[in-house]
């Protein structure tokens, strides 16, 4: 199974998502999208395949979102995609692509919807939140 994660190693949600993928028995292709920004077509495809609008895929916290005035409803998707191209931090993360689909994995346990083996066993996030308990029950 080919899995790709568009990853930011500084993000706890992204690290938790990566850990769940690995715990499922898959070593994914990791794209550190801040170091290797994706072209406009790739970003647009990720967003569309995840069933989101461009605006829904934006990260507003700790980004230049406000200073660029991107909150205005008149801003077009093309303008938003151009802004993501210039400031990749505006793309929310992590996006994960598998043969079962594409998701923006916020919260990180969304990745379980598209893993071939979602029965990954017990899993606790970095912050101590239990996602799957010792009996294999999904908590979150």
Question: What is the number of helical segments per DSSP (H or I, 4+ residues)?
Answer: 3
Tell me the strand percentage band: 15-25%
Task: Label the CATH architecture of the domain at 1-33 and 93-140.
Answer: 3-Layer(aba) Sandwich
Query: Structural class, please?
Result: alpha+beta
Largest sheet: 4 strands, mixed
Number of strands: 6
Low-confidence stretches: none
End-to-end distance, in Å?
Answer: 25 Å
Average pLDDT, rounded to a whole number, is 96
Query: What is the rounded Rg?
Result: 16 Å
- What is the molecular shape? elongated
H/E element sequence: EHEHHEEEE
- Order of strands, widest sheet: 2-1-3-4
What is the CATH C-level name of the domain at 1-33 and 93-140? Answer: Alpha Beta
Helix content: 10-25%
CATH H level of the domain at 1-33 and 93-140: which superfamily? Glutaredoxin
CATH fold name of the domain at 1-33 and 93-140, please? Answer: Glutaredoxin
Helix-strand layout with pairing:
Blueprint (H helix, E strand, L loop, with lengths): L3 E4 L4 H12 L5 E4 L7 H10 L27 H10 L8 E4 L2 E4 L18 E2 L5 E3 L8
Parallel strand pairs: 1-2
Antiparallel strand pairs: 1-3, 3-4, 5-6
In short:
With about 140 residues, the protein is α+β, with helices and mostly antiparallel strands. It is about 25% helix and about 15% strand. The protein has a domain at about 1-35 and about 95-140: Glutaredoxin (3-Layer(aba) Sandwich).
Tell me what the structure shows:
With 140 residues, this protein is of the alpha+beta class. It has a domain of 81 residues: Glutaredoxin. It contains three helices and six strands; from the N terminus they run βαβααββββ. A four-stranded mixed beta sheet has the order 2-1-3-4, with helices on both faces. It has a two-stranded antiparallel sheet with strand order 5-6.
């Amino acid at each position: 199974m080919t899995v790709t994660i568009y990853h930011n190693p500084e993000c706890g949600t992204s690290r938790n998502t990566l850990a769940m993928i690995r715990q499922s028995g898959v070593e994914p292709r990791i794209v550190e999208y801040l170091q290797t920004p994706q072209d406009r077509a790739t970003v647009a495809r990720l967003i569309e395949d995840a069933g989101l609008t461009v605006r829904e895929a934006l990260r507003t916290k700790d980004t230049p979102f406000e200073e660029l005035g991107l909150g205005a409803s008149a801003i077009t998707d093309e303008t938003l995609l151009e802004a993501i191209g210039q400031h990749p931090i505006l793309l929310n993360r992590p996006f994960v692509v598998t043969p079962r689909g594409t998701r923006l994995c916020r919260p990180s346990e969304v990745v379980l919807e598209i893993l071939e083996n979602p029965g990954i066993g017990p899993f606790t996030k970095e912050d101590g939140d239990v996602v799957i308990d010792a009996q294999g029950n999904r908590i979150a």
